[in-house]
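Researcher: Next entry in the queue.
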Amino acid sequence: MEDCLFCKIAAGEVPSNKLYEDDRLLAFYDIDPQAPVHFLVIPKQHIASAAALTEADAELLGHVFATIASLCAKLGCEGGYRVVTNVGVDGGQSVPHLHFHVLAKRSLAWPPG
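Model: Structure for this entry, 113 residues:
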């Protein structure tokens, strides 16, 4: 998508602090971290939000969560971590591209604010 910030980051047009990249995903550190470990995982393919996912995206989602688990293990997040995806304006989604926030290395209260 032409005006999508995360598509531009995935294409290398906008710099990011990359943590991981393969042919389908990019993980990079959040520019406004809310925990000692806070990174985002995005598919390189533009998908507007979790609301746009279908059964056909099951393999991609499996890859997303396997990648998150691997990255958290490498980063020493043995105490646990939280994975969040926001959907729509009322859900707190600020960039209309599917992305997963991963937060770790601090106690995360429930319910979230």
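Model: The radius of gyration is 14 Å.
Researcher: Noted, moving on.
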